[in-house]
Design brief:
The longest helix has 20 residues. This protein is 47% helix and 13% strand. The protein has two domains: 149 residues, HAD superfamily/HAD-like (Rossmann fold), CATH 3.40.50; 67 residues, Orthogonal Bundle (DNA polymerase, domain 1). The protein is built from eleven helices and eight strands. The strands form two sheets. Strands 5-4-1-6-7-8 form a six-stranded parallel beta sheet. This is Phosphonatase-like hydrolase.
Length: 227
Amino acid sequence: MSISDIRLVVLDMAGTTVADDGLVEQAFNAAALALGVEPGSPEHEPMLAHVRATMGESKISVFRHLFGDEERAQRANQAFEQAYHDLVEAGHCAPIPGAAEAIAELRAQGRKVVLTTGFSRATQDRILAALGWQQIADLTLCPADAGRGRPYPDLALTALLRTETDSVREVAVVGDTGYDMLTGTRAGAAVVAGVLTGAHGAERLRADGATHVLASIAELPGLLGAR
């Protein structure tokens, strides 16, 4: 089976198809402040470092790690989502250059495209609406749709099941973080492609299993080629 046999492309959103521009960190700062952690304080710095290292992971999982008990994690997650929603509503949300065109080309090649995220469904839908992307993909998935978020394989495997794709060897998983790469490798995807438009660099992407590293999502249709 060759790369051109890929039938399903599972794409991350923030950092891969949607520009982040520091929005996650800004929203995290608001969440930390809601829990009494001042940005720039000694307590805040290691938390921010953890957020950066775990970009791509389900956000509620990150907050459970940082704040311990479930009540505090849920409060932090709610504050994060509200801050992120406010940033999106203020116009701080844009596609990665060439992303919409790449998705259209992948679908024109006869491939199904699924957009995935570590955000909640409410946040994902807010981003899609802000970009006018409600119909851009065959399917959109968040961690609650799949069971577990990244770095587990659930999102990629749920995409396979929902699109009735025959084999994991017909799947490409694409993202900007090491957690995206782990999701792809654990799901058995034939192509696990990292892009350099987001959180992690080429070394981290390759260490976590990238089969290919691309400058951006715009290069993906050319990599996969005509079916």
